[in-house]
Design goal:
Elements lengths: L4 E4 L10 H9 L4 E2 L10 H6 L2 H19 L2 E6 L1 H10 L4 E7 L8 H13 L4 H8 L2 H14 L10 E6 L8 H9 L4 E6 L12 H13 L9 E3 L1
Parallel strand pairs: 1-2, 1-3, 3-4, 4-5, 5-6, 6-7
């Protein structure tokens, strides 16, 4: 029987960010829970009034429900949700940890401006609209959460899959290398050259889903060190 899985979306995002992966896991017989979390982008006022500690509390509430209902479970975190997933993995009975474009090192301003220019060129303007709709106070809380939770990575000792988009315009690809160095125990890292930040909606999504399935099905020994890189 496959373990249930809890999936977290990113800062100012929503369940749609990880829903394609959740659908894939459900098709292979895995129960998936994809909650809308209080750091989502639908409520300006909720974001403006919340603090990073509130986001940690909300994440813990989800983990407590999974622990109560299922015992052990798998955990997927996207972007800021990845750091919260890592935090939960050292405090709750998480069996496998999957980190997608996890927020550790932010993208350079020059690269972000380049992406915004491209979006203006194609009249999409996604980044600009999002920047205008995100309270500055919430962005500050996001940076505080990253600073507070980064140290927890060195406490992660369960099997961990790290996936990083090479064209990510939000999280610097060096984040994946940083995480790979910090987490302890068995881990693997995968690079996705055709993907932007929304990796589950990218041209590399099918390859990512295959990697996740293989990772979840793999047998890990307690005393071996897995260092697979692709």
């Amino acid at each position: 029987m496959k373990q249930p899985c809890l999936l977290f979306h990113g800062f100012t995002g929503g369940p749609y960010e990880v829903e394609p992966l959740a659908r894939h896991l459900r098709e292979r017989g895995q129960f998936c829970k994809v909650p809308e979390l209080p750091w989502n982008g639908d409520s300006y006022h909720q974001l403006k009034s919340s603090r990073w500690e509130d986001w940690v509390t909300a994440a813990e509430e989800q983990a407590e429900i999974m622990t109560r209902d299922y015992g052990q479970f798998d955990m997927v975190g996207f972007s800021m949700g990845g750091l919260l997933a890592a935090y939960l993995s050292v405090r709750y009975p998480v069996r496998r940890l999957i980190l997608l474009n996890t927020a550790v090192i932010y993208i350079s301003p020059g690269r972000l401006l380049e992406v915004m220019r491209d979006e203006w060129k194609y009249q999409r303007k996604i980044s600009l609209v999002k920047a205008k709709s995100t309270p500055l106070s919430a962005t500050w809380q996001f940076t505080r959460l990253v600073r507070k939770l980064k140290p927890v990575l060195s406490q992660v000792r369960i099997p961990t899959l790290i996936a990083q988009s090479e064209k990510d315009h939000v999280i610097h690809p060096q984040s994946a290398r940083y995480i790979y160095r910090k987490v302890r125990g068995q881990r693997e890292i995968h690079w996705h050259p055709r993907s932007n930040h929304l990796i589950c909606h990218s041209d590399d999504a099918a390859a990512l889903f295959r990697q996740v399935s293989a990772f979840l099905d793999k047998e890990y020994s307690d005393d071996s060190q897995n260092k697979h890189e692709s």
